[in-house]
Design goal:
By secondary structure, this protein is α+β, with helices and mostly antiparallel strands. Helices cover about 35% and strands about 20% of the residues.
């Protein structure tokens, strides 16, 4: 008898990554996919502007700030808002920036 899929990850079919720097010498974009079976999936794509520094900070910290806000009892929409605000504060005064798309 086949084993039953884990309900926490049953809907996750695949995670793919594609990177194409085209005509640029460096890649400023970053991405994160983190699966926490007890909570869900966080996915983020960060388009760096003016260097990779801001995208690296966002990729290293936005999902952590989001999960911390959820752990503190915030609803997902509020957790996203708080996470974006906290990471935005870290980016103040930097010469580079990033556009973020998250789920």
């Amino acid at each position: 008898m086949p084993s039953q899929p884990d309900p926490a990850t049953a809907r996750i079919r695949a995670v793919h990554h594609v990177s194409d720097i085209g005509l640029r010498r460096t890649m400023e974009d970053r991405h994160v996919v983190e699966i926490r079976p007890e909570i869900g999936l966080f996915g983020g794509v960060y388009d760096g502007h003016g260097g990779p520094e801001a995208a690296e900070i966002v990729a290293a910290s936005l999902h952590q700030a989001f999960f911390e806000a959820l752990d503190a009892g915030l609803r997902p929409i509020e957790a996203f808002r708080q996470a974006y605000r906290s990471v935005e504060e870290r980016l103040e005064g930097m010469d580079s920036g990033a556009t973020a798309a998250t789920i």
